[in-house]
Design a protein that fits this description.
The chain is α/β, with parallel strands linked by helices and 402 residues long. It has two domains: 210 residues, Beta Polymerase, domain 2, CATH 3.30.460; 137 residues, no CATH class. A five-stranded mixed β-sheet has the order 1-2-5-4-3. It is globular and about 75 Å long.
Length: 402
């Protein structure tokens, strides 16, 4: 590597070290935005995850370049988001979301249905290079992200599987294989294309159209990201105003299963994503642990169990209690979820702050037996943490009340 190339590499790495906290924050914001947009559209997603290129991988890419870029934000693949959906027709629907909500700097479409000849093989996918639209760049919190771009890669499950198989095989080209090998790959690509089409047809038979396209009914499973370097934890902005007491009685201790909630799963999922108080509290918790927020369908199911336990009759009632217990709930965050200097959460689920509300509600009863029952049956925590919460929740709650 000559001197000029070495100087460029040193400059890029210095920029990377300086910009890493902002790159990570920008990645998290873009992931959260896409999560929210996809949920509202009613699309079910297999996985959605984002990552910032690691420092060592950044350096590796420079050694193979004849003329490496001289500015960090021009490095290819610096920020990437992968979206994998179950059905190929959902690829088209998310394509519309991306094109309407982001500035598209460049789109790379790999679609074997339109370009494949008998000897050609590969996979179908859409790759985008995006940046925030002007309306978001004008926001004060986005000023620090000017110039940052994201690669968004969109696949169906089958498209992604084929891409990973080819990557494992070294992405062979047709000239490297004998004629029989080329035909085998072409047959496989055609088979996978047909499988994508057949899955779409099967979905229309099994799932009514109203269920397929119902906003707010999406179930998004988001994979864990690779651990990112953690920024220093930030404390939430909590006022000392004392919350109101609950206006209803928590159900008495019982070994029987709680009655099914009058709030539906779809209503709860939509509430978690759209309620301003929940959104604010979630961001506070996320900032405390320097983590990110990602939607998880299993978390909605668990929260619905707690909603049933407390016998909430409506979203309006749940929303009222969220606002009343907002301050005291946030004050107990680090006691319940652990010291931010010791805990390293790769991500936190959207709606995590509602679990804090439930802890506050059960603590407000002052009944140790009910606290033990709730902690044992409905907590997200591990056994060791549950024991600590069970033993200390009442005192934590009293201290939070001031």
């Amino acid at each position: 590597m000559d001197m000029s190339k070495r100087d460029i590499t040193t400059h890029i790495l210095e920029q990377y070290d300086k910009q890493l906290p902002y790159l990570t924050d920008f990645k998290n914001r873009e992931v959260e935005l896409l999560n929210s947009l996809i949920i509202k559209s009613g699309i079910t997603v297999h996985s959605l995850n984002g990552k910032v290129k690691k420092r060592e991988h950044l350096l590796d890419s420079f050694t193979s370049m004849e003329k490496p870029p001289q500015e960090l934000f021009k490095v290819d693949g610096l920020l990437t988001i992968h979206i994998i959906v179950y059905f190929e027709d959902d690829v088209k629907r998310i394509d519309e979301i991306i094109n309407s909500e982001f500035n598209i700097v460049h789109t790379h479409l790999i679609d074997q249905r339109s370009i494949m000849d008998p000897d050609r093989f590969g996979y179908a996918a859409r790759h985008y290079l995006t940046e925030p639209p002007e309306r978001r760049i004008k926001l004060a919190e986005y000023q620090q992200f000017i110039g940052m771009k994201t690669q968004v890669r969109l696949f169906s499950v089958i498209q992604n599987a084929w891409a990973e198989i080819l990557d494992h095989l070294g992405n062979p080209n047709k000239d490297s294989l004998p004629k029989d090998g080329r035909r085998a790959f072409a047959r496989m690509a055609g088979f996978l294309e047909l499988a994508d089409e057949q899955l779409n047809d099967i979905k229309t038979f099994i799932m009514p159209a109203t269920q397929q396209n119902s906003p707010g009914s999406a179930a998004v499973h988001v994979e864990r990201n690779e651990p990112e370097p953690r920024a220093k934890a930030r404390s939430p902005n909590i006022n000392s105003t004392e919350p109101y007491k609950a206006q209803y009685e928590v159900p008495a201790f019982s070994n029987q299963e709680p009655k099914k909630s009058q709030i539906t799963r779809e209503e709860l999922a939509n509430f978690i994503v759209t309620n301003p108080a929940i959104n604010f509290m979630d961001r506070q918790v996320k900032d405390i642990y320097s983590s990110s927020l990602q939607y998880q369908e299993l978390v909605v199911d668990r929260l619905l169990e707690s909603v049933s336990y407390f016998q909430f009759s409506s979203i309006a009632q749940l929303s009222e209690e969220v606002e009343r217990y907002q301050k005291v709930s946030l004050k107990m965050t680090t006691q319940i979820f652990g010291d931010p200097e010791q805990e390293n959460y790769e991500f936190l689920p959207v709606g995590i702050s509602i679990s804090l509300l439930f802890f506050a509600l059960i603590a407000s009863t002052g009944r140790q037996e009910q606290i033990a029952q709730y902690t044992h049956n409905y907590s997200f925590l591990n056994d060791e943490a549950n024991i600590e919460v069970e033993n200390n929740l009442s005192s934590w709650y009293r201290n939070a009340l001031g």
